[in-house]
Every structure is written in C-alpha cells, then in structure tokens.
Fold these 2 entries.
Entry 1:
Amino acid sequence: MRPFQALGDGNLSVRIAANEALGKPGSAEATDPLVRSLRSPAVEIRKAATESLGRNGSRAAVQPLIDRLDDPGWRVRRAAAYALGGLGDQRTWDLCSMPR
C-alpha cells in the first residue's frame, strides 16, 4: 500500500506509519495530506503529521504548525515547536517576540 492511500486506512498504526513516511524533504505533494492529518482526533496521527511537516520543509506548513502550538496534546505542541524552529520562517520568530 502506498503512503497516500494508507492515510485512510482503518488501522491506526498504518495511518501513523503513512504520515511518517510522507515526511521526506521537499515532498511538496505530501504537504496538503499531512496538513489534513493535523485535524485527526488521534494525537498519535497529529504528532506524526507535525513531525513530517517539519522534515518536509514546506513553507505552506508554517501556519498549520503554528496552530498546533495550541494542540491539546503536549507531544504535538512540542513537535510543532521543533518543526517551526527547523523551518526558520519569519512568522516563527515573530511569535517568539510576542507577549503571551
């Protein structure tokens, strides 16, 4: 089964592995499916998608990753912070200087 097809599999472990497999640098076609995975009710899926978006390197992922900084799952929030730090987008630096 190909990773894009596996994103819709009924098995949680298969969906996690598919999200992880899509995290290749420069894989632009994987960005939208990974962003959709960020809306999964399963924290494990959101974490895998967040990490993969960080490895992917797409600037289109910056705002969805910023939104994950408020995720209810702490592992997702941590993954989003690491991913954003690696992307180095100006919006990330602007967040660091904003009062909370």
Entry 2:
Amino acid sequence: MIFSNKSLKQVKKTMIKKYSQEHLLKLFRKLPQELKEMILSEETADNAYNIRQRYNIDSEIAQYIGFVLVGVLPPDEFQETLEKELGIKLEIAKKVD
C-alpha cells in the first residue's frame, strides 16, 4: 500500500479542495433531476443557513454539504472532514452530521 490510512485521508481531503467549479458543475449536471432540485432548493439553503447560525459555523459548511450531495465527499467522512477542515468541535460535528 502506497499510503497509510492517515495519508490516504489527507490525499482525499486535498483532492476535495482541488476540484474546480467547472468539474463540480459537470458532476452536478450528471445528477438525477430530483437531487439537483433538492440541492438548489430554498429549503436546503435555509437548512444550511440554520446550521451555520445554530452552531456558529463558518459559511464553508455549505460547500462541504455540496461535496457530499454531488458525490465528492463520502457521507461517512463528512463529520471527520468538518472537524479537520473547518476546525469544528467533535460534539458539534456529530450534531451537524
């Protein structure tokens, strides 16, 4: 194995940050229409805003939610990514997840 588990996770996080808007848009366009509508809905935006307000979290959380929804970030890595990338405390990351 080229990477240890820790190194592999670091590579994944770095890869997430390197996706261009163009690439993410291509991924978005391939999604089922129902998922696209959900991602762009006012309800989804309100939910992300409410999470930010409730837990006093940086606005970048919306980006990570989007990464999960387009398939760039596996859902089971969301909590850990919030902790490591945004510096969110474990107990708050668990509530958001």
